[in-house]
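Reagents: none. Just compute today. Serine hydrolase.
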Amino acid sequence: MSDSVRWSVFATTLGERPQVIAELDADAELPSASAAKILVLLAASAGVEDAQLRIDEPLDRRRVAPVGDSGLWQHLASDALPLGDAATLVGAVSDNLATNVLIDRLGGVDAVEAVAVEMGIEGVHLHDIVRDGRMPQHPPALSTGTARGYATLMSRLAMADGIRPAVADRVVGWLAAGTDLSMVAAAFGLDPLAHTAPDRGMALVNKTGTDEGVRVDLGLVRGPRGVVAYASLAHWQPSAGDPERDAVLESMRTLGAQVSAAVGG
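Predicted 3D structure written out:
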């Protein structure tokens, strides 16, 4: 790993006798880009379970400012989508517009963070809505987190540990359609557009985050030998041509190979 890159990495098997398979500065808090959108999904799922929200409730994107980059809704004709569809877009393509619409419906970023605190989630923080540009008055990063925090959250979702099973299952379902397999998950060789069913003996649920000088991948991998929860965060200052990015992706793929071996893929 390059000395110019800051890392936070944690991967562990789940079950009665968990075994750490990779760890590097697991408690270092780094920018995590879109990864903390998982908190938005958790808050939305909890709201549905508490009957404060409806899964078929129409949400209108015109309530929030337009935002570009990742996502599909900005390219679609419909101004309104059911809440469940907006959450699916966040899970599948990290949709920025759908994220902001959900945050607006949930009552703002503070309301999302309050749900995380109520659930006892540590080491994962959403600081702001998604913006096309960050000004001095805005939080410097959309989110921050630690590898231990993200991996622990993924393991809690898998085991419904302190999270109601219906809430956890709904979030996992939204994430299962995720299409970004460019980082840790690149080692698994799965179909990025269809990996909800086991392939090569493995099933994957993950969430990624990407920004300038930031790559994050966290997930759950199930295989014949068991389940692994992992999180890998990398942060660096890009230089000309950004060669660090290639080194980061290669290191993440190496972690993926370790995860694959641990689950029997």
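Strands lie at 6-13, 20-24, 30-31, 58-60, 80-82, 124-126, 143-145, 203-211, 214-223, 226-235.
Action item: order primers for follow-up constructs.
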